[in-house]
Design brief:
Blueprint: H1 15-23, H2 27-48, H3 52-68, H4 79-97, H5 99-105, E1 121-123, H6 126-135, H7 138-149, H8 154-161, H9 165-184, E2 192-194
Antiparallel strand pairs: 1-2
Length: about 200
């Protein structure tokens, strides 16, 4: 495993040049690419896991895959989107690989009760909402993150998780409704947000 990364002076270049420099083995370029996306990708990892330590493990594994497979990036889209897809796939693999997650990742239709499908006005800050998402059971958390935040379709989620499109849809709705229920119970004077 390579070390991410020893301190080095930073320099700026556009992403195409940066990727080319990384492919040539330029450590400063690798450091710059990592620095440019690590914080954002840590947020992705944290949303899929239940601890900072697990999120850091996913981030590390994800960036190893990024640098190992960088030659597969074709430049036909943003490099950040390409990296994000690798990080999400790494997070899913991590959840399946680790027993304490994989057992919870199995979707059980009876695990949560159905609640109202209303669209209430909610008082909540983004940080609080992210923490609530992380309190969902792993399967619901994963599907909610993939659909609502990462933009995967229920067909794609079904293929990636080995479940039906209908199961993905119903689990997303149950997760969403559970979040709405929790949000309705939240006291406070946070900024008003319409959550749908």
């Amino acid at each position: 495993m390579f070390e991410l990364f020893a301190s080095s002076p930073k320099y700026c270049m556009n992403t195409d040049s940066l990727v080319k420099a990384c492919l040539r083995g330029n450590e400063q370029a690798q450091r710059q690419l990592y620095d440019a996306f690590a914080s954002q990708m840590m947020g992705v990892c944290y949303r899929f896991t239940k601890s900072i330590e697990d999120a850091e493990d996913v981030l590390q594994e994800g960036f190893i895959k990024v640098f190992t497979n960088l030659s597969q990036y074709k430049g036909d889209g943003e490099v950040g989107a390409w990296i994000r897809k690798i990080i999400v796939n790494t997070a899913l693999a991590y959840l399946k690989k680790h027993r304490h997650y994989s057992n919870e990742l199995l979707i059980n239709e009876d695990h949560m009760h159905v609640i109202s499908d209303d669209h209430p006005e909610i008082n909540v800050q983004v940080k609080e909402l992210i923490e609530m998402i992380r309190q969902l059971p792993v399967g619901y958390q994963t599907i909610f993150n993939m659909h609502a935040i990462e933009g995967y379709s229920h067909i794609e989620i079904g293929k990636l998780l080995g479940i039906s499109e209908g199961t993905s849809r119903s689990q997303y709705m149950r997760a969403r409704n559970q979040l709405i229920c929790w949000l309705q119970k939240q006291p406070g004077e946070s900024k008003k947000t319409s959550y749908a």
